[in-house]
Amino acid sequence: MPPTAPMRHEEEMNDRAAQIFIDTYERERSTLPGADTWLARQREAARASFAEAGLPHRRLEEWKYTDLRQALEKAGVAASPVHGGAVVLPDTAVASAFASIDRHVLVFVNGRHRADMSRAVRLPKGVVLHPLVEVLPEQWAKDLVERRLDAARQSEDIVDLNTALMQDGVALRIRKGVRLDKPLHLVFLSADDGASHTRNLIRLDEGAEATIFESHVGTATAFADIVTDISLGAAAGLSHVKLQDEAPGAIHMATLRAHLSERSRLSNFTFTLGCGVSRTQNFIRFEGEGAQAHVNGAYALKSRQHADQFCVIDHAVPGCTSQTLFKGVLDGASEGVFQGKVIVRPGAQKTDGRQMTHALLLSRDAAMNAKPELEIYADDVQCAHGSTVGELSRDAIFYLRSRGIPEARARQLLVSAFLDEALDLVPHEAAREALKDLAVGWFAGGEGGR
After folding, report:
1. What is the pTM for the complete model shown?
2. Where does the pLDDT of residue 449 fall: very low under 50, low under 70, confident under 90, or very high at 90 and above?
3. N or C: which end of the chain has fewer CB within 10 A?
4. What is the pLDDT of residues 248-259, one digit of tens each?
5. What share of the chain is helix, strand, coil (3-state, %, to 5)?
6. E strands within 139-263?
């Protein structure tokens, strides 16, 4: 059957948007990091794969609620941002949320490391921390970049764009039994219009431990394309807290891919406040028994913001535990999305996998799409999933107002109490309190406080 006129228009638009990135690759391939290493072949294969698949669109099941192609076309994002020059971090509560915490700091501006703005000194022996370009010749970096997860192939296809064009990022390796002495804070600033492609590689060897913060802020109509590859050795533990508050016209595309060995522990939390269109993808694969993964998050949206949370937990071996909870509040004409899947492979007995999402609509124009899924091929498991969408209780507001509390304050108390269940799962006490303060500030400064 020939395509209809709207379908032809979409395909042509996809071709135009994707071609911009393909042309960028052809123009810059010789100057991209790793041009004289194994990465050159990997980039070329990724470019070919991306050219075939194109940018994601709503006709793909895993992208049915978010049309990245259309968002890029509408925003008119250029292929590359302007580089260089003096920049400063925005003077906002989000940009300084972790400022009171003793931490190492690495700053990336438009996807490139800025040593003059970073602060990471006196690292413990056994901690290797470098910009990405310095570790590309090493085998462990090659192993992480080349690994793929086929549990959600449509959603991982977009990683090919990052592989073809990645410019910089952080490479962290912690040797056996070593603990990072204080959190590592990765700050990503979009200071110019255009696209940046960042790749982060994190490897914790057996028994290693670390805490990582991420802050994504910006003032530009940019496209931030970030992929983070994580490998946890036996009994290793990683706590990861991400905060995203980019400019209203920006597009944020982030993918985290984690491989967990036996008895390893991953605790991940994402808090989304900003951006025009954002999609956060988490792919977790258990490769050793007794591992645990906690993948949680919260979001607070207003105006016409769109935030998509996509999460796939792949239980490929027995005896592992995963828990996922996402809670969000939506005001104005904002739209939230949660798509989650727990896969239990044949033979993965004694699996405990749970997934839940709750959304609170503060406006009649706000919308929420939720699609949690279970895909189970083993019989001795404990798995559950669920979703709720609702509005503030009029009875609860009336009760608080009858006790002398103004309506705006009553709404704020109820919203904070709703989000606290998720924010209580932030795996760092000081960061947890900082994010709770941001949630209160979001309500006080926007539509939610009307």
Report:
1. 0.93
2. very low
3. N
4. 999 999 999 999
5. 30, 35, 35
6. 170-174, 184-190, 194-204, 209-218, 222-232, 237-245, 251-260
